[in-house]
Amino acid sequence: MIGPPARTAGRLLLVGLFTLPLLFMTLAAFRPTGQAITAGLWPNSLTLDNFRRLFAALPIGRFTLNSLLVVAAAVPLTILTASWAGFAMARLPRSTQRRWVLLSFLVLMVPGVALWSSRFLVYNRIGIGGTLWALIAPAFMGSSPFFVLMFYRAFRRIPPAIYDSARLDGAGVLATWRQVAMPIARPTTLAVAVLAFVLYWGDYLSPLLYLNESRRYTLPVALQLLQQLGRSDYPLLMAGSLWASVVPLTLVVLAIVAAALAERIRARHQRSAVDATDTRY
Amino acid sequence: MNRDYDRRLRLLLLPYAAGIGLLFVLPALMSFALAFFRYDSLSAPRFAGLVNFSLVRTDSLFNLSVVNTLALVLLPAPLRVFGAFLAALLARGGRLRHLLRAAVFLPSAIPATAFALAWLWILNPLYGPLNRLLASLSLATPGWLADAQWARPGLALAVLWLVGEGFLVCLAALYDVPRDLEDAAAVDGAGAWAILRHVLLPFLAPVILLLMARDAVLLLQESFTLTWLLTGGGPYYATYTLPQFIYEAAFDRLDFGMASAALWALYAVTGLILALVYTIARQWQIGMSEEEFLL
Amino acid sequence: MRRIIWLVPLLLLFACRQEKPVVSFMVFGDPAEYAAYEALVAAFEAENTDIDISLTHIPSSKDYRTKLATDFAAGTPPDIALLNYRRVPGFAAAGQFEPLGPYLDRSDVIQRADFYPITLDSFTWQGEVVCIPQNISSLVVYYNRDLFAAAGIDEPGDDWTWDDFLAAAKALTLDKDGDGTTDQFGVGVEPSLYRIAPFVWQNGGRIVDDPTYPTQLGLTRLPSLQALQWFVDLQTVHGVAPNRLEEAAIDSETRFVQGTTAMYLNSRRGTPTYRESAAFDWDIAPLPRGQQAAGILHSDAYCLSAAAKNKDAAWRFIEFANSPTGQTIVARSGRTVPSLIAVAESEAFLDPAARPARSRVFLDTIPDLQMVPLISTWEEIESTASEEIERAFFGDITAEEAAILARDRTEEYFTLGVRP
After folding, report:
1. What subunits touch chain A, counting only 3 or more CB pairs under 8 A?
2. Which of A33, B49, B122, C301 is the most exposed place for a label (fewest CB within 10 A)?
3. How many CB atoms lie within 10 A of CB C183?
């Protein structure tokens, strides 16, 4: 029998365990340059020196801008195309639905590795190799079947009666999607937005494989460059890692806070019918 | 009217369908076909029959990479899914659940390269946090990434922190378990363990199995980023995996034919994983109906 | 409102499409080295306002080659790439570079006679100069003068021997706090074929069986093996260099910059970084002498992609970079030992106010320089052999085993390789 106190302790333990890498990263990132890494784990004072060195070593500002450009384009595009696909799948006849769900699962099972070399050839053939388009391209198809399935799942939970009444009011497909489906699936949209952000922000392989000019590089590649500059300069490496992690970390925390607040508000409003499934955070 | 509505719906599906075709099906078909050609992308492909396959099969590095891949992918996958499930179970409700959700997802949210570099530091053989901890507990301090014996365990340890996707799926699946089922069991006097075994696990088995397969596929990619940045496949090929073999064949030696032939092996490994999952599902008579497939 | 939000990504997408006629130029190196090329590009653009140079920088020279190969495969190679002579044959054999000999002959800014002959030889493929060399560096010993003074030993002379080197290394390897682990190492060196080659030559050995038509590695022959053994013993027997774990924890070059390794073997490439980061007094010495004098050529050159759209504009940059003006700019940063004799002998390189004080060491070794054989698969040969040398250096296998494994594992690359 596991009682609530034991569960709370278990939760705390897990929280500690999962934040440990981040903790070590942070400790090293703020370590003074003068304190050799041979001298203990704890920094004897905190300093921003390593971040200063980071910006001196590489054009980090430029790389950050590129990263922002990619997510600014890819995330809204992903939400658009993934929700379209999810919506269409949820509204199509049963047999068609099944086919697309199965196809989506199959695509999920294709290892990314398998596509590197031939995508490289495809991108170069259609002329987007070497440009930021090569990083954004998957957003035109919803980025990942995973996102499409998330929307599909959310849209299918909406009672058909709601769709039907919209249709009786003369709303077309797009209007139904925009005015009926999307507002209800807001938590899913938030979740997909965060996941897509994380996906594109952290994408290391696409720039590695498809970009050739360093002025187009994004932050994940910058970290690789940093490591090539000096693989033993841990404070500098950790400062770079922390810099590249700050935005997604903030976003995740904000999303979870938002989800928590929404959950609380909803619990207050309709204590009986909590549709908790959509608040995944 | 109805046909028209459906047609418009299909129009919304078009970007997705076209994307799957252009970014998945076409590259996959290309790599299948290229395996029969010698191709360096500089000159026209030359038909070569089965030459690439015999080149790959007789390459000792290839065989080594397959073994390493299996070790690095098949071992952590069940552990990760188990961990994700456990975390989801704890994060389902109760106090601190939001904090736990944030914490579990954080390592997956940071860029893979940042995560890798963090572990380069954590696993530093002399001054890293992990070995300092082990030393303070008077335990042996392995050389981790610098040691051919310990490099694989070191990497396997690192990937245990990357359970974000599995965690989300488990959490969503747990919410789908009808509350009354659990309540009924609790009324019957079943403890938490019994509920887990007799209510939750049977209900979630298909999801967990599917997740296991997906996780193995995901690990293929994640392990490459880690090995590429942390060990470069070393020390002395101890962490040299199939993705690296394919990467080097294609992008270093520009031997797209051989890379494609090696890809067949990758598809075979993936197929094997899927077959394994399918067999287990059949064996345990776990329902794989479409209804339960949908997350 | 909502509609406008969807427009944002589209606008952004168009914002990143701005095409401008430019000459792309790719280099490798540390930030301090990169700064030298930025200065070069700035100087060129100031004089040639009609040409825009776009500089791409990859820190690691190994990844650099992969990147360049990939760019050729993508059909988007940089117009100009800086490349070491060991890596040129792989590209030259595939006809990916425009031979620059004819351009050099037409130039009224630079002539063949201005260059040290060995630099042009090392970039000659099928009787034609392919790339224009910028430098004539070689392997030297960087040493921390403060640590030598603290240990009370003489700084290396111009004619020091292997024994002198080992004695100094031993005296400089210290366990300061007596806890049983070494806190200061005498030597740091990358265990690779490229690094052991000059020692092999100094001992009368060969790294390949026949330098003019190599068919296998020559490390298994006695003089070569003796040199390899001496090199490996530095770590395995004398412990004057970090072992595998120590090297993995903090690499030797970082240790040298931090002042915890007394001598570090490197080419001129290290100079800009050490000038910038080393907080101690340092200088360079020639490699210690074996039975005969020998050094190893390190030379990088500007190569013009055969697929470059605007070859004349690209050549104007290459010509400028290798004119006395251009080479002076890069030499001042400390990055190069200039390949132009006049610039190498000038104050830009021999600047007495800048470290290292003994820069002339680089010029004095030029008559003894040898080069690795030119073969299209040299990169693979070198990296494979280096894996075995590294294992021997860290005591996993003996020097003999390493020599045999290196020879056997590289055999096929000699068969596959294309020679000039």
Report:
1. B, C
2. B49
3. 13
